[in-house]
Amino acid sequence: MKIAFTTNDSVHINAHFGSAQQIDVYDATAEGYTFLEALKFQGNLKQDGNEDKLVPKLKALNDCTIIYVASIGGGAAARLIGKNITPIKAQSEADEIQDVLTRLVQTLNGSPPPWLRKALLKSQPTQSQNPFEEEFEPLEEEVIV
């Protein structure tokens, strides 16, 4: 699953979601984690209540399961949750990305809490978008006219 972190230095979770100029994305599994990319954002990213600036971030994070932030506004959190992305506030801006990822991998190897199991299920691709769709074998019919 893809995990994102708002950061100013690629080490700590130390940026507010709305004003973050960088979001680092990792792939995390029970086997470990891998850095994927650093998403960069420019323009007017001030914490001013203007939620239009969130659109590029929401699009860029579309396939992420969890995002760790130093802080986040209520509107932005609701929009992330609406896209099945779970926002998590870091305990402090001194929290290091590598430490959080290591603890996450340990949790995935143990007994993940219900919220994480739910997030994991959301991150797994579904085989069919239509729950009523079934697989049928083709039938051959003889038509007599």
From TrEMBL:
Keywords per UniProt: Nitrogen fixation
Pfam families linked: Nitro_FeMo-Co
Entry annotated with the keyword Manganese: no
One Gene Ontology biological process: nitrogen fixation
Domain called Dinitrogenase iron-molybdenum cofactor biosynthesis: residue spans: 12-105
SUPFAM superfamilies the UniProt entry points to: Nitrogenase accessory factor-like
GO molecular function, one term: metal cluster binding
Family: Belongs to the NifX/NifY family.
Protein name: Nitrogen fixation protein
